[in-house]
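Weekly structure sync, notes
Attendees: PL (lead), two postdocs, one rotation student
Agenda item 3: pending single-chain targets
PL asked that the sequence for the first pending target be pasted directly into the notes so everyone works from the same version. It is reproduced below exactly as submitted, 756 residues in total.
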Amino acid sequence: MVAKRLLLALALALVLATHYRALQAAEGAAGTCRSGPRGGIDPKPVRASIFNELTVQEIYAVLRWTLKKFPGTKYQGDIPGPGGQNGDNVDILPTDNYIYRVILKDPPKQAALAYLDNRGPKPARMARVIIVRGAAKPRDVMEYAVGPLPLGPGAKATPLFKPGQVPYVKKPEDAPEHTLMEEKIGDAADQMKTLFRFMTSSPANSDKCYGPADECNSDYFGWWCSASLLEDGTKRVSNIQWWFQARGAKSGNELNLMPLPLYMRIDVTSPNYNNWRIFDLVYCNQGPFATPAALMAAFNAGKIKKCTTPYGKPGYDDTWTRTDVARGTRVRESAAIAGPRTIWPEGQRFGLKDAASQTGRGFTYMGWEGHVTVDPYTGIQFHDIKFKGRRVLYELALKELYAQYAGVSMPGQVTYFDSVYGIGSNARPLRPGLDCPENAEYMGVSFLSYDAEVGYMPRVVCFFEDDLGQADWRHTHTDATPPHVDGVRSSALTIRFVTTPAYWDPVFGTSAPDRAYMPRVQGNTAGVLHDHLGLWKVDLDVTGAANRLVKKSVHFGSYKQAGVFNEPGWGYKDGFKYMKEELIPKEAGFSYDYKVPAVYQVQSMTEKNKWGSPKAYTVSVGYTTSQLLPPGHPIARAMAWSTNHLWATVQKDNEEHGHYSIYDQHSSRRPAFSFNEYVDGESIMGKDIVLWVTMGAQHVPRSEDVPLITNHGTHMTIKPFNYFDELPTMDIVDKKVFGTCTTDLGYAAQTTWRPN
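Predicted structure, written out during the meeting:
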């Protein structure tokens, strides 16, 4: 970015062991230093607040209205106030209709732009309501646009799907289904109490088994399900993997480092859950066994190899799995001394607006302004980003996080779409002094959660200006009298969001792990090779919505190849480095080839800079991996967006997300939607172009991933290309002498900093 950096940072915290303490700092707490001319907190809403996610009150209002609009439809959570309900009194069966999600439905872009630019009325505020219809024939999932909000006599529910378009077997993962699955899984585990004790090295009379409470303490175990690749669009089958929790109910996410050598499948296709069945049980890579009874018969008769883990032994030390315990007396030299902190010597230079909102903020910073909110399911979203009053980005939004695991056994080839579980709703309050400086500002997110609870989570996004510890630009005047250095210290407005939607999946190794895909990382634990990919939507409007896409690539070749036909009579004769410019006429996808460096420019159709070059912005990605799955893989069509690093499409309001992952976690080989449908050969010349960016990393597990996995870093850069006539940061003051107050760190002092 320009004129100081605007860092839009998504910290993806995929953790093995999470230790959470309630923090006493209030949301929005800040120091008492004076603010700069654009700093401070303004309670007034901004026009971009039309993008604020639904509030808790709006979600409850939509729930009440929808339950009245669709008689017989259920909701399994609490609804307070008149016309409310106690969710504990609501049971949901596979033959019921019930509300799954309530989220904001984004306004149409043209209507939003007209309002943002004072050319039109405020767009109607609408909710997107997802209803799972187990009572329909055939059973399916429906989406409705409900509104306008606030709901009044004119409110309507407009269908967004056709009946039967999304079959029931592709419905999202949810708490009602898992509640019923628990009954079947618990019944199966009850038949295997002996096996549970044996494979955890627990005493024969131990309560470390999964079954009736009078005999077993089920808190020592956990199970997790993942969609089976066996699904073909007619069946709904999940793989079940088991884990051990060494401290029972007091355990945290460290259970993910103590997997057990037991897997099974559950078929939940039937509308009669009494017909759901457990099958294909695998113990120590032996099987599959058709039923729990068949597995136990082979186990008790000694017909199969028996394997065990040490986790349940009395006195077993599980500290290797945890971050919330001291590591003995090991403390690095000087580690007990407090580290650096971020302060703002003369006060806050950024400003926040719409501070009264639960779910969105406008922000300003040294010529920049924009809006941020958090979608409960897809995560952080930015809208209407401008520099010095001119819009650069209409939308910059995270749309998906995905992980796909290797493996040849039952839990192998597992795929997780994190939006299914809630990238935004699984964010937790950021810790001041750790995730963000002590003097940062915050905002939260409201949501209808995966387990049917309406809630609000504060401090999931923080705002602060960060000292980057280097020069934004510098120049040494070596021949001047006296020689000297000019420059500006580099800083950036950082907007940070951290989410914990899922866990890393280690597996138990019964023998030497297969180093081809599963290196051993601890005594009984091997980590599975997998990747992490994210999808971002980048809607640039460069001097307006009508743009074109140009690829500029660098090559080495002959003068003729470069189009230079008057070959000079001097210099190197065999060629030179040159740039090739290619106009991209239609919707298409592109992958980076580091042997042929290239930049992709979204260019203005109408404006040039002072030197005659079209004004443009580029999008480039730092180190990133590629999607390695072949086209025929069961999830390939559902993950079509991941087959290229960059896609260019024409903006359409109904092409909002790039992926309906909540419907493609199951039966992914028959996706409800494929990104290929966006790319249909339509011309993008002079159109409103949307770029879709894929970036991520391959995770090759290592022992240093215990107890926490490595944070795999990658990044995307959006920067001007001939948009300005010169380096735009030349209007930043290089201030060397200033007073400072440091009350944000808990003490007051007035100091003047004077460099030598």
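Discussion points:
- DSSP finds seven helices and 34 strands in the chain.
- Residues 175-190 form the longest helix (16 residues).
Action: rotation student to compare against the earlier draft before next sync.
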